[in-house]
Amino acid sequence: MEDFNYNKFEEGASLRDYLNLVLQYIVPISIITIAGLVVAIIYALTARDIYESTTTLKIEKPTGSILEAPLMPEFSDFGNDRFIANEIEVLKSYTIREKVAKKLYEQYYQINVPDSFYLILNKDFFDTDTGSILLDVYELTELFDKKVSIEQKRGLDIVEISVESPSAFEAALIANDYADAYREVNLSYNRQQLVAVRKFLEKQRELMLQQLIQSENALKVYQEKNGIIELSEQAKALITQITDLQTKVSEAKLNYLIAEKSVETLKQQLAQQDPKLKGYLENFAIEAYIQGLQEQIARLEVQKDIAISQKKNDPDLAKTIAEFDKKIAELKAKLNQKIEVYKASIFASSPDEVKALTQKLIEEEINYQAYKASYNELKKILAKYEQEFNSLPTRSIDLARLERERLANEKLYLLIEEKYQEAQINEQATPGNVIIIDKARRAHKPSKPNRKLIVLIGLILGGGFGLGYAFVRNYFDNTVKTPEDIQKKNINVLAWIPEIEGLDSENKEFEFIVAKKPDSIPSEAYRALRTRILFSKLKDKQIKKILITSSAPREGKTVVSVNLAGTFAISGKDTILVDLDLRKPRTHHLFGYEKTPGVTDYLFGDKKLEEIIRDTSIPNLKVITAGTIPPNPAEILASHQMIEFLEKLENEFDFVIIDSPPIVAVTDAEILSRIVDATILVVSANITEIDLMQKAVELLSQDNDSFIGVVLNRFSYRSGYGSYYKYYYYYSRPDLNKKNNNKQLKS
Fold first, then answer.
1. Around Cβ 95, how many Cβ atoms within 10 Å?
2. Is 570 helix (H, G, I), strand (E, B) or coil?
3. What is the CATH number of domain 483-716?
4. DSSP 3-state assignment of 502?
5. Which of 73, 107, 349, 687 sits a CA distance of 20 to 30 A from 32?
6. Strands (E), 236-388
7. What is the rounded CA–CA span in Å between residue 83 and residue 78?
């Protein structure tokens, strides 16, 4: 068999080596595997059913202007995954989770069926509901983080929100609440600019309505007090011109205030995403060249409007308008060229999600500057008309001023009302970029647990832990386990003695196995040991005196001594077993004798040799017990009397088998090894440490040539050596095998 170190799995280990290790620890591996399987079965049977519901969303990327269109359409979705990833983070945000939690509280009280809910209810340690106590908002949001899964379908603009809960109703409810909460947040974000404009116009509308009412009341009071006064045609024409101009001034002011509000809102959004870009755009807006162009355009447009209103019947009006349009177009071309340069530099370094916002901000900034320039130019012209108006007679001026204020307020109110209604329509008409494709539905069967899979995993984990236990224990276990462990230390292995069935700490009946069960596997192993001893060569010296020792106590040396002596006796050789363990003798127990009289009694001259030799149940086998325990065993064993005693036994018997104390513990065995023909070291599988065995071999081999090898005791053939066990069983039980063969023939 190939050498293999079971203690450290080194390179070159074969599959058979691993299989042998598994077989060696088959009992604990089986117990751990069965325990894992039982735990898995119990969990599978008692685990609560979990239901899963999923709602599906389509998130569309906001479309910008043509300037944002990609140069190559095939790469149009290059940044789409990043956009969807950002939206998924919004879905996972605390804001969304908090909205869902609060909505779930409302639904819980509206539905008023506690059995339909599970996650929202507070649980004790044993997972039972504690009445109607609910989790607080923070606890529920933390729970959502674990129970809600938000994922993008690969390569698509589709996002799935999946919720798990022991309540199928609650799982569907939470999934739909998530979709609704996200859609509301998304819609609010997309309408943020329009909402700000609408609220501003709403305040202006209320203010202008009050001013209109006040101006109408003031005119009415003046007319009632002074009588109805008709204005002159000159005054009426002047009032009409001033009113039109004042309306245009108010409209321009309203437009630039609306644009200013939009710019502020967009700047706030941009600052959250890219503060540096916000500062860059602010520098662009206040550049003198751009402001100068916008002021020139505004001046020409105002002059054009005045020319149209004053020269309606002029035959050269069309030519005049064409000249104004040409100049305005040239200035706008220069302005657009400058704006394009800014856009190109911004879009080249901006992420996709920032481009649309930047485009809106640039457009609103341009509108804001244009409205502001137009407003300033109209104010200058209005001031000239105001001077002409102030030159009217005093009485006419008062009436004209009141009439003018009323008309101006009326026109401005109607203008604001129109823009307010338009803002409302735009706000409601602006959609979000979220579409709910599929609402979550109540699941009809649980998605978890997969009970078959749990049982399978339990079996696999149990087996894995069992194997892990075997490998870890084997790694840290430094005991001798197999003959290969001994051979790897260059130590000769004489025989492997298997465990004796039925032998334990209480039952000692089968310790003398060669006498009790001569056809057993251990008996055959002892006969193999006898044969190998007989064929051992020690410098052509005949082996008659054989010493049996061990490295430590309780390794089975006494049992080996008794059975080895028995095999020699059964083979027809006159054999005597001598118990020279003068510290803790045990041989007399195996034969049912008292330890006295024995060896020490003979050496002290208290007994004759014939008096201490005792018969056994096996012919040709005699035994001498230890006798009275002396205070100085080592001195007795090293005495000339001991040498003479063993020589006398050698002359009378064919073989003298000597049982001695462990060699590492005391020096007795080392002394005896120098006066015997052969020394055998007994080691016990899974008990004797390798280091201790090596130490014992060193002691026996030091300046001594009697050591012939090691006997591995209590070795399990079944653990990786099944073929040996099978052959031993077949040849050691011929009668039983013959009966089995006859039964097979009959059947």
1. 12
2. helix
3. 3.40.50.300
4. coil
5. 687
6. none
7. 10
